[in-house]
Amino acid sequence: MSKYLQGRKIEPRPIDQKTSITDLVDSTFEAYNAARLREACHLLVEKMLADGVTVGVSLTGALTPAGLGISCLIPLIQWGFVDWIVSTGANLYHDIHFAIGLDLHRGNAATSDLILRQEGVVRIYDIFFDYEVLLSTDRFLREVIAAPEFQKEMSTAEFHYRVGKYLAEREQMLGVEEKSLLAAAYRSQVPVYTSSPGDSSIGMNIAAMALEGNKLSLDVNRDVNETAAIVLEAKRSGGKSAVWILGGGSPKNFILQTEPQIREILGIEEKGHDYYLQVTDARPDSGGLSGATPGEAVSWGKVDPDSLPDAVVCYLDSTVALPVLTAYSIANHGRRKLKGLYRRLPEMIENLEQEFKRAKRSSEKTFRGARQ
Question: Which of 14, 116, 250, 275 has CB 3.0 to 4.6 Å from 121, enough for a Cys bridge?
Fold first, then answer.
């Protein structure tokens, strides 16, 4: 028999009332992107969630307004399956609605937008909410940003941590705990970054407050170095680094550029991320980042070339894939101890600085020797 006919026979069990999420994935996801999703579930549970692996997740697309923060991302944080996050600002802005008791509703995408505008209803495809939701969220943000603790320059991780504290308090006051991703990240010491801090209503409110003399400024240099430090620490501590990419865009590039920052820019010897799981609906042949493959990432030094077998791309809508991945991982893997990376950032930055200085001295010594 040909070696190409050694794979398991396609012979799924019929789905019935007793079919579990594990049975569904392992027995009925036989081919095409269903099979890629099965491979992603196995990569996540069997390798990425090992104790020594640091898992970074990037979020693109309107996931939190669709409820995926509540249904998936918060449980993943609480189970210790997510150690750090890079997100669009929009996902974090819409996350705030839930913590401060504001409502979003199911809608019909075919509804006339002219009628919705007249009714004061805002639409994100088939998600509807009152325009006052935006105004109330803006007021909350400006009130928080005006606090003395925000009158300085800080990383986006520190900013989101401090906002998360206020959201956790508001959740408790309103009796709506475990609704906010930022509040959950605050409780679990999970650092949350925004790769384009000016590109959301959060950034817009910060800019508006600056016109009134507010001193808050977001330090993107700190973000770049902190995220690189997280990945370097994962490797230097004897562990591995995994990236779980939902969508693409700027958060995808930001979470992947940590390795080129370490090796290409800082001159520290490194090989790339060890595990790569992406969910995207973008094609790779159009040149867009969302469709860029793990193989392409290898050419940039973003992914360890020896780890390509541990790279899975599902060409699938994240709103479908994320609940499946979440349910499968919780059903098949025990809780992990929380790494609490936020409180360890100063230590990790110091380690990065020391390695950078050693690498720079070594490079300068080599350069002088070559010139002589």
Answer: 116
